[in-house]
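Internal ticket - ligand job 707, 2-(butylsulfanyl)adenosine:
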Amino acid sequence: MYSKEEQKEISNLTDSLLKQKESFFKKENPVEELSLLKRVVLFHDWRYYILSEPLISDFEYDSLFKLLQKIESENPDLITDDSPTQRVGGGITDDFPPVAHLLPMLSLDNSYSSEDLNNWKTRLERFVKEQDITFTAEPKYDGSSIALVYENDKLIRVATRGDGQSGEEITMNAKVLKSLPLKAAFSRYGIHKAELRGEVLISKEKFEQLNNQRLEEGLTLLANPRNAASGALRLKDSSEVSKRSLEAFIYQLAFAEDSSGNNLLLEKIPDHKSSLDILYSLGFKIPKKEFGHFQSINEVVNFCAGWEEKRDAYPFEIDGIVVKVNEYKYQQLAGSTSHHPRWAIAYKFKARQATTRLERIEFQVGRTGAVTPVAKVSPVSLAGVTVTSISMFNEDFIKDKDIRIGDKVLIERAGDVIPYVVKSLEDVRDGSEKVIEFPDSCPSCHSKLTRPEGEAVSRCINALCPAQLVEKLIHFVSKDAMDIRGLGESLIKRFYEMDVLKTIPDIYTIDFDKVRTLEGFGEKSVENLEKAILKSKKAPLYRLIFGLGIRFVGLRTAKNLAAEIEDLNELTVLTEEQLLEIEDIGPKVAGSILDFFSVDENKAMIQRLEDLGLNIVSDKSSLKQENLPFSGKTFLFTGSLETFSRKEAADLVESLGGKTISAVSKNLNYLVVGASPGSKLTKAEKIEEISILSEEEFKNMIETINK
Ligand code: IVH
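stdout (structure tokens):
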């Protein structure tokens, strides 16, 4: 994709750009200057999204990107379709029209053992007798399949798989994926039009972050990374799609023709491996390190076994290995059935699925009043864990899948992801199964439930609902909120039932003499509990704000809020306008905060907490990271450190207001050098602005600050 020389050249250019910023541009030839800047940004996109080996820090990348946006906004007629700024999204659509694929997207036949793979090879031999046949093997990505059409080097259309013949057009949403080049030099290979197949995925890590955020915001959880990816591709607002951090692996060049309509696969591009090499050279993300090319099925079997071992450690969900005949001439000889090609087969990993019986449904009320159906199933072992309870998310989930009480259900647990119900086994119903009725009233307080339009969840809106109160208490004491150790879920429930605890302020007036008399309480545990509660009074304000459990106010928002106010009372009187000015707060969050403080009981609770001696004052400076010793300073660690791990060192820098960055550039203030440093030191030595510190010097610096 980029030669060594080119990479060096762009890297030098990056340094000059980062240093000179706008003054780099002489404004003599805006077209040329802009294309230079675009080239730099695209190059860093490639290092980050395709290679996963960035050369500059996120901060540096952002400043280049903003520079590009600024120059383009000054020269709007020079904005091109393939500019990296054009991916950001913002277009709204709920129309995903059907489009026919250039070639049908078939399914794959499955295999589960080495025997199955050998049998497949035997079946192949009826069609392909040649001895020089070879096989490729690569992960079977468990995401959402897409087909991409490029014409004249431009991405013109992206579609979902659909029924295999035609899918839904999702071009606008797919364009936000930075691993999909908007422009690619197919013409270099004489290709005028091409259709590529691939899989859109969300990494396991990003999926977990996404669900944690949804949990904080009181939204329903996404069942698994596959659903998160396919759901994201159909979101109406493409700027929302970009927030899901989707990536695309391309695994097939399905169609390629020149401008006279000649098929180039076979004659010009002889096999699958060379197709993928071409796609890689054009800037696509392909299975590269993950790819195997073999002469025999035995080697393929070993490759599959190796992947079965390491699938959990791989950052994306995969459910098997796809084995393909490499040579197109032999693929052609093998041909396809109406359902799948004979030249490819999926080797499926051992299932993380099981069947069990759905015994009953419990409706649980969360702290924001959301009522979630939870399936109680006969205990079943699934990937090493006994499952008895499974969240069913919401009413639509159950209705769409027509799940009934008494049904035999297929359940799945992918990787570390929470188990979920894949489907009911309708064929084995005996007629005694019961349709799941949704309650109209709250299972805890019996007040009427409401389901706001456009939302998937029914809610109890009674502020005094016991189930909600208990959940609110559990949230208040949780680790990211007030972190009151020793006051766990079961104790809260017990205290609630005993009338010891009804509301949040009650935590601070617990009668410990009474607690001492309770069964299971020794002096030590009472003392620890008392201490933990006392300690929480001093917690930083953002923890208290988060602990209040205001809908949509997650930890990050709580921090942003705390950074803007002097004390908690100020938060209760902020206007919508003032709230909207705060980072990351949009109308939905602002509305929810206003609603919360419009309730007299909530205002009274804040007053009570203040009277009880809780810290309600904001420690603004530490949140804004302004007046800290390392504010505005950047650090980079190289070589192995003796006293700290990298993470500890980075945390230390951050706690003092500094930032760590990942590459040596003029934006770096301090390079801290441990034992056997690499090329970073050599590079830094050439840059005057960088101070080079030994680990000892860095430690002294910290000690001086802490004195
Ligand atoms: S090749 C003609 N390669 O698996 C079949 N498919 O059951 C060509 N998939 O929905 C497919 N990873 O999206 C192929 N490395 C890979 C794949 C892969 C995932 C999906 C594909 C399709 C399904 C086929």
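Auto-summary: The chain has a mean pLDDT of 90. The chain is about 35% helix and 20% strand.
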